[in-house]
């Protein structure tokens, strides 16, 4: 197997596109302030990265249609047609001044919340190390021993909400379900970025097939759901709808190797909906090397995943703090990329699918989402930094399946 070094693109805060020497990610920094007139948050002008001219709104229950129309008319806002596969639990508005409209709508007693349609980016960090050799993720997490007890189930799914998945890749083609593409609004969620395919391979690549890499949950299927574009960016509305879609499709596990430093009610509602439907949600903790929370990883119903290297040292790029639940290998991870290839990548994006794959193994044992979360956290190995950089330690697959 010849592995290649990946070069890619990064979105800067000014929305300029910069070609980097290696795959990278810059997270939008969001500063939210409380409104005096509403418990909902407002965005300070210039501090958040969001879709120009778009606001996400949810009216309170039982508000009359005529009242909604009057409210939107006063805000000079128009509802954007909902053309994707999910009946959204919110509306996306087309407006002139996002900040002013958000402030005005959150002061309206008929509005549950209004917030910018934030942009989210993939959670990887520059990878400067190129070498050919071996995977260490399954070995370091005692997954080989866990495979003696369970390898997942073909009747279950890990939803990869990402830049898509190359469902023709020889290490993925026999097990990937084509879900929905929320970028192009069709049922062909092909990866145009590399990120989603790499994540999918780590979670559940075909295994024992005499080629490529081994996935953490070899027998569990992949539900490919595209919510990020070719540059690795995606809107709050698309990601929230993708989470809802995945839960409605019955995905036992949902992986979100993406995020934003932005506390958003729309996203948290989508996460809570999926949790209440029985899905366990795993998300990357972010790659800014800070203790600041990263969403959706920080939400109560999400397992937040930090990254460690092959020696169980915290990756320099990984966000940290006791809000990070567990860690997993995330430095120089070998996995699938589009076109039938393989590459090394680093980031909490690469750590998250290790945990998602473990969740797939536990789901095949008939465990509920809360049992899966409990077993992952309670069995984690207390490596250096546990209790400070992360709450529970590095995942231990064998210990988890034995519980």
Automatic annotation (TrEMBL):
> Looking at the record's lineage, which domain of life comes first?
Bacteria
Instruction: Provide the Peptidase S8/S53 domain boundaries.
Output: 157-380
The entry's keywords: Calcium, Hydrolase, Protease, Secreted, Serine protease, Signal
InterPro entries per record? Fervidolysin-like_N_prodom, Peptidase_S8/S53_dom, Peptidase_S8/S53_dom_sf, Peptidase_S8_Asp-AS, Peptidase_S8_His-AS, Peptidase_S8_Ser-AS, Peptidase_S8_subtilisin-like, Peptidase_S8_subtilisin-rel
Catalytic residues (UniProt): 162, 195, 349
Q: Which family does it belong to?
A: Belongs to the peptidase S8 family.
Q: What protein name applies here?
A: Alkaline serine protease
UniProt organism field: Thalassobacillus devorans
**What does UniProt list as this organism's lineage?**
Bacteria, Bacillati, Bacillota, Bacilli, Bacillales
